[in-house]
Amino acid sequence: MQSRTYAVGRSRVQLIFGDISHATTEVIVSSDDTLLSMGGGVSMAIRRAGGGSIVADAAKLAPARVGDVVVSTAGSLPAKYVLHAITLGDVDAELPMDLIVRQTTHRAMQLLPLLGCTSVAFPAIGAGVARIPYEVVASQMATVLVDTLLDDPTAYRVELWLRSASDRIEPHAFFAFFEAFAARLMGVAATVASDVVTLQPPGASPTPTDAQQTAEAERHQRVYEMLRHLDARRSQLEARLLAALTATDHHADRLVPQLRGHLEDVAQLRSTYAAELAALSQQPDAGQPDSVFVSSTYVDLSDHRKRVRSVIDQLRLRFVGMEEFTATEHAPVNLIRQKVVESHIYCGILGMRYGSIDQGTGFSMTELEYRQAIASGKRICMFVMSDDAPITPTMVERDPDAYGRLIAFKQRVLQSHVCALFTDPQDLATRVEAALRPHA
After folding, report:
1. What is this structure's pTM?
2. Which residues are 268's β-sheet partners?
3. What is the pLDDT of residues 319-353, one digit of tens each?
4. Is the domain of 170 the same as that of 307?
5. Tally of helices (H runs) and strands (E runs) in the chain
6. Using the 8-state DSSP alphabet, how is residue 53 labeled?
7. Residue 207, in any domain of the structure
8. Which residues sit opposite 190 in a β-bridge?
9. CA spacing 20 to 30 A to 2: which of 69, 91, 389, 423?
């Protein structure tokens, strides 16, 4: 079982890859439809483990509304309650997926003190039958859970269970998304100690040592506070929108477009503050001399990266890449961008996989690194795997949408740069050496 633990305020959030029916928390959350049928995915697993009495009890409360969280008994499970997060129904097509995830997560957390419970196990809400992308789930659950727990005086034990059998996202990728979005959407700081990642407000970071750092810290704090305020306002408006969409009176019909307009205004304002937050992490210098940032997907090109790193070392240049990132197994978006900006040369390697996607931009981490190199004016050396290269099935992108994005990315790169084509790790190493030797 693979897991990672986060300290948030007085609470602990643990991300676990496994079967949620094995959780020992007081409360288990299930994704379900408006009829509370528990007919597929996570809800079916909970039903099988807890028995039919859960369904019988939940059926008394049907129909529910999308965005609702309904409480039932837990059958033979060790938990006291099952919370049914409603993610499928008649109005779900009218609602953004991120709204559904935010609202159900928020309502489940609100119910804990009312039920007298301090421990809860969540699934990746809506990532199963509702087909909400894992990246959306990771970003929005991270935002709600961190925002809820940062200032709460109660110590909660929160578990987020992810299906280990799913090939839609790897553990390290979900951890990276969770941390990246907590930092990028809220401005919290992440530090690592004794295998626990602590997520905390920016004011909890080390004391600034000069006037410029003091000013930047104050600005960061103001942006952070405004983002939290806007999130609270967004949550209120979304709750009213969910109620209006299922109401039958004419007043509700007039209220829906008004609420949508307010939400658009909040979203625009929030994006402005998020941009300010991103600007705070920018490094103005041109990069450390002789440093080379190596960008690629990892699992399929690990041998290629080793050969490239060996070449960079032999040329007495400084290698910069994901292998060097110590704070997390795979770097969050802000750290990636910072490392690209700090480097002198960008070395991009494109294989047959697109890589983990950052939902905020819709780009993979690899494409984000490339775009940051372009924006930062770096010297760029691109290497693209040849059609004649020997490959194995695990080296090829399996998701059709991601594969389409990969092809578009490659075409953009091939049109914009003189690229070297490579076949195998040694061939790549030879071509990288030829490109970098003038800078050694």
Report:
1. 0.61
2. none
3. 998 776 644 444 456 677 778 888 999 999 999 99
4. no
5. 12, 16
6. H
7. no
8. 199
9. 69
For residue 294, report the phi and psi dihedrals to the nearest 5 degrees. -100, 120
- Are 334 and 177 in contact, with CB atoms under 8 Å apart? no
- Within 10 Å of residue 171's Cβ, how many Cβ atoms? 18
Residue at a domain's end among 280, 306, 338: 280
In 256-401, the DSSP E strands lie at: 291-295, 318-320, 345-350, 357-358, 363-364, 379-385
Judge contact between 161 and 18, C-beta under 8 A. Answer: yes
Q: Which amino acid, residue 128?
A: G
Looking at this protein, which amino acid is placed at residue 362?
Answer: G
Q: Is 318 left (phi over 0), alpha (psi -120 to 50) or beta?
A: beta
Q: Strand 318-320 to strand 291-295: parallel, antiparallel, or no bridges (unpaired)?
A: parallel
Position 311, amino acid: V
Distance CA 80, CA 22 (A): 14
- For the stretch 370-415, pLDDT in tens is 888 886 778 899 999 999 999 888 899 988 989 999 999 999 899 8
Say if residues 425 and 307 touch (Cβ distance below 8 Å).
Answer: yes
Q: What pLDDT digit, counting tens, does each position of 196-211 carry?
A: 888 888 765 556 566 7
Tokens of 340: 């690209």
Task: Print the domain residue range for 224.
Answer: 212-280
**Would you tell me how many other CB atoms lie within 10 Å of the CB of residue 255?**
17
Strand ranges for 262-396 from DSSP E: 291-295, 318-320, 345-350, 357-358, 363-364, 379-385
Closest residue by Cα to residue 428 from 300, 303, 291:
303
Tokens of 411: 């075409």
Closest CA to 159 of 108, 120, 203, 111: 120
Distance CA 197, CA 326 (A): 12
Residue reference for tokens 């997390």: 328
- Rounded distance between C-alpha atoms, residue 235 and residue 345, angstroms: 43
How many structural domains is the chain composed of? 3
**Dist. CA 204–CA 189, nearest whole Å:** 8
Identify whether 400 is preceded by a cis peptide bond (ω within 30 of 0). no
